[in-house]
Specification:
heterodimer, A: about 220 residues, B: about 210 residues, mainly alpha, Arc Repressor Mutant, subunit A, about 75% helix
């Protein structure tokens, strides 16, 4: 409680910063009450502290501040990826709004046109667009044809107009009567021509014919 | 009231911590805006700190630039073991000390004189903010600031750094210890010794001015 001047002065530094414990504070205050030299010394320390705290804070020169920003910016973009990103951004940014606007306008126009009667519905049958299609039998002629339970395989040649030009029996027994019936059957049937890239062309089709009975 | 204050301080610190974490995340992501913000907040304190440690204004500018380049390149390795301010100040102190060591190798230290004009004095001692002061008082205040500045500049670097961090940057003991990588006890003893040296250096000036 009643320390000498040396002990008390050793506490001045912490006392100035407010880091003394309550007991130390009491000791200092009590000591200062009767010790004039210590009071004067503490006042000097307090004056120095006030002077130091009152020193104007140095501000960075504006040119240094600018140089720092430039340097940091350069460092940030000092890699090939960053360079490319900037180039791409610079290239794309001017195009971004016109392109987005154009795409949006086109989408809106397309949606409006699709909803209107601008495009009339097409009812024509689709043209097969496969590379090559064989001739197809569309309609078989209503003619009796008796093969006695045997099956005939007939290769039929169809021209670009869908007309049968000739035929040939590939397998099966055929009598002269049966050939007459087969003539009528083949020549009166309706065929669709073969196509190449959608264009009608000559082609061959194999038909398997067995017993046909027409009622009525 | 006695309880509310620490709670509000704790909340404030937590909010500050989350803000700092967000800033650090932005910095580590390479955001240019975050670095601009960092510069805006820390460039003046760092320059002020560095200029009290190195000898000349141009050196302070170079060192400050180096500090921020180091901060920029090292932010990826900052793991928030200390606050961002402590980390930046630690870099600043280290850079300034390294620069000063190099400078000392090149130039012999000159004898200290309170009459000698320091290089940094140009334009930094702004007039007092009290507008009602007379020109004489303003001149006296300016002269006093110059003298204190010269006395501070004449201190050995360990003492000067601690005095600057405590008196000018208003850092608590534990943060000073963290910035300098020394114990709190060493901070206290250096601060006491630095203040004592300053008092001795300035005693002569005061006795002259009061005559």
């Amino acid at each position: 409680m009643f320390e000498n001047c040396t002990d008390i002065r050793g506490l001045f530094s912490r006392y100035l910063d407010g880091y003394c414990e309550s007991q130390e504070m009491k000791s200092i205050r009590f000591h200062l009450r009767y010790c004039r030299p210590c009071t004067q010394e503490l006042e000097k320390y307090q004056t120095i502290q006030a002077d130091l705290r009152g020193l104007p804070r140095r501000r960075i020169p504006p040119e240094l501040s600018l140089a720092l920003r430039v340097r940091i910016s350069q460092q940030l973009h000092n890699n090939w990826f960053g360079c490319w990103r900037i180039h791409i951004e610079n290239f794309l940014k001017p195009l971004l709004i016109p392109t987005s606007g154009g795409v949006l306008a086109a989408t809106i126009c397309f949606a409006l046109l699709l909803g209107s009667n601008f495009f009339p519905p097409v009812h024509r049958p689709d043209v097969p667009l496969a590379l090559v299609t064989p001739p197809r039998l569309l309609e078989l002629a209503p003619i009796n044809f008796n093969t006695d339970d045997d099956q005939l395989v007939v290769m039929t040649r169809v021209n670009a107009s869908g007309q049968v030009t000739s035929y040939e029996v590939v397998s099966g027994d055929i009598s002269p009567e049966l050939r007459n019936d087969l003539d009528r059957l083949i020549y009166f049937s309706v065929f669709a021509p073969a196509t190449t890239f959608g264009t009608p062309t000559n082609g061959r089709v194999f038909l398997s014919v067995s017993r046909i009975t027409v009622r009525g | 009231m006695g309880i509310a204050r620490p709670v509000s301080v704790a909340i404030e610190k937590a909010a500050e911590g989350s803000r700092e974490a967000a800033l650090v995340a932005e910095l580590q992501g390479g955001s240019e805006e975050a670095f601009s913000y960092l510069l805006a907040v820390y460039q003046n304190p760092v320059y002020n700190l560095v200029s009290h440690i190195v000898e000349s204004g141009s050196d302070a500018a170079d060192v400050t630039q180096g500090v921020f380049i180091k901060v920029f390149s090292g932010i990826r390795y900052f793991h928030a073991q200390s606050s961002l301010r402590t980390w930046i100040y630690r870099i600043a102190i280290r850079e300034a000390s390294n620069h000063r060591r190099g400078w000392l190798r090149r130039k012999l230290r000159e004898a200290f004189s309170l009459d000698q004009e320091p290089e940094l004095s140009d334009g930094i001692f702004a007039r007092s903010s009290i507008q009602s002061e007379t020109p004489y008082e303003i001149a006296e205040c300016s002269e006093r600031q110059r003298t204190v500045q010269r006395a501070l500049a004449s201190l050995a670097q360990p003492y000067r750094t601690v005095v600057v961090l405590r008196e000018i940057e208003d850092m608590p003991y534990d943060e000073i210890a963290e910035v300098l990588g020394i114990s709190e006890g060493t901070v206290k003893s250096r601060l006491m010794r630095g203040r004592e040296l300053l008092r001795r250096k300035l005693e002569g000036y005061w006795s002259q001015s009061h005559v």
